[in-house]
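It is worth pausing here to work through a concrete case rather than discussing structure prediction in the abstract. The textbook approach is simple: state the sequence, then state the predicted structure, then interpret. We follow exactly that order.
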Amino acid sequence: MPNIFIKADCEILIELPEVGWTSDEWKSEENERICEDYGHPKCTINFRIDNPDEPICPAVIYVGDNDAIDGSISVEALSETKYKFTMKGLFKSSIHKDGVALLNSGQKPMLEGVTRFRQGYDLEEPRATDCEFSLKKFS
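Step two, the predicted structure:
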């Protein structure tokens, strides 16, 4: 799969539907250890590029904290149900060739959700971010 580069300086506020929904998993030291032991990202920021020709088949881009070239992704618990994901720096991920075609046609990646310790949370509606996406490394 082709590479994609992401330049980011953004904060993403997540409010979970109820106490304990996913936050128990997001606080689990055992889940954190599993990520460390197996080299999984501790957190990811997930994007999608809608495909107007095939609406049920968007292209996805998962950017993990271990994809950082220069920077980081961090997570801060603000309360039992509110979390702040901070993505700052330059990242390298991969994208399906269909996603490359969508980018080249002018479609923009939208924030779809986040994961922490392999437990995901999708937003109700994808939303725009200030992240920049490029198929070539930023100079």
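Step three, interpretation. The chain is about 15% helix and 50% strand. The mean pLDDT is 93.
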